[in-house]
Amino acid sequence: MLMPGLFPALLLAADEPFTLPAGTTLQVRLITTLSSKVTQTGDPWIGRVVEPVFARGQEIVAEGSTLEGRVTYVKEPGRTKGVGEMRLVAETLTTPGDKATRYALVAALQREEGAEGVTLQGEEGTLKGPGKSKKDAAREAGEAAAAGAVVGEMAHGGTGALYGMGIGAVAAVIHTLAKHHKDIILPQGTELTFVISRDTTAKKVVPSQATTANP
Predict the structure, then answer these.
(1) Which ranges in 49-159 belong to alpha helices (H)?
(2) Which helix (H) or strand (E) segment is 108 a member of?
């Protein structure tokens, strides 16, 4: 038997705001595919929470919750220098089910996993594309120089090999500079970790119930 006044108190506790404290991490799996080739600044993205968040001994963000945000910055890779760059920010978190909750939040990207060659740098969480490594450039230059040596030897005999190597090396440099660095591609399934920057409070969303008229 409930003591007088206890039941209203329980109702109040169940309906009180839930707070996600600053520093809370949200582990999500990207649903939207993003690329520095086609994605524009301001474009939205969507992810699904893959690890629940607990507070005060209860689950307040369930697995499968929806995290939505936008792309705040995009830079395509250059031909001669520079790599592609992209920044994401999370803005809205919605939990599923009858006890749905929506949080308007600000969260920055802290970790990325699953996008080939992409790295995360800086306090703002800037994603940077793979670019061309010095090893790859040196390998291409060597291959072109060797090909040039063969051509030079065929054209001028053995003494022409050095001349041919010079031609090949120059051609390799031009070829390397003409190539684009690789674009950033964040495919579906990329795992992202966001950190909430300030305390965020929301109330449980009470779903509306349709009323029916008495016959």
Answers:
(1) 134-156
(2) strand 102-113
What is the distance between the alpha carbons of residues 47 and 44, in angstroms, rounded to a whole number?
10
Res 15: pLDDT? 53
CA 82 from chain center: how many Å? Answer: 19
Tokens of 63: 């697995």
Spatial separation of the C-alpha atoms in residues 80 and 183, rounded to whole Å = 14
Q: For residues 11 and 204, what is the distance between their CA atoms, to the nearest angstrom?
A: 12
Please give the C-alpha separations between residue 46 and each of 83, 117, 139, 188, 203, in angstroms, as whole numbers: 25, 22, 40, 10, 22
Q: How far apart are CA 78 and CA 41, in angstroms?
A: 17
Residue numbers in the chain where pLDDT is lower than 50: 1-14, 133-134, 136-138, 140-141, 143-152, 154-155, 161-165, 167, 170-179, 208-215
